[in-house]
Amino acid sequence: MRLILGSASPRRKELLAQIGITPDLILPPDIDEDPRKGELPRPYALRLAEEKARAIPAGPDDVVLCADTTVALGRRILGKPRDAGEAAAFLTALAGRRHQVITAIAVRHGDRLLTRASESVVKMKRLSDAELNTYLASGDWQGKAGGYGIQGLAGALIPWISGSFTGIMGLPVAETAALLTAVGYPVWRQE
Fold this sequence. Notes:
Layout lengths: L2 E3 L4 H9 L6 E2 L14 H15 L7 E11 L2 E3 L5 H11 L3 E12 L2 E12 L5 H10 L21 E3 L2 H5 L3 H10 L9
Parallel strand pairs: 1-2, 1-3
Antiparallel strand pairs: 3-4, 3-5, 5-6, 6-7
């Protein structure tokens, strides 16, 4: 039984390693990640995780694991910023406020597809111009939903969370282990 990770994210690979799992193959899917008109954050994240899992070519015995992390400010979806200007706009909107981070995971084995979403609440501190500019100059915002990654420099900007730290990073390990176990992938094997 091969495990295919449908993600180019080094963080997701590292989080799997924390629970002793090394993917046999890494195949990032190529799908349209634009939200549909009026789509809400949680259904959006779940749809993307499912579409990613269905887009990965796999054999009947393979297990495919995909995820999508979405930052939501109310009903507004903050995806991966296109440039530093959009990252600045996202961070300015999040500063001093609570927001949601939703990471949806999808596990496919044969015709069976299981999904689950981890929802966390994050509070970002008010940002000084120096903090904002230093963070933008670091480039750490690139490729990250909402324009930040809690595991990097932005961790200093997050005084409070409620929920899953690994979910905020991009792969909730408890939920992931449960779904992998549910499709028969040996998560808790002894060497």
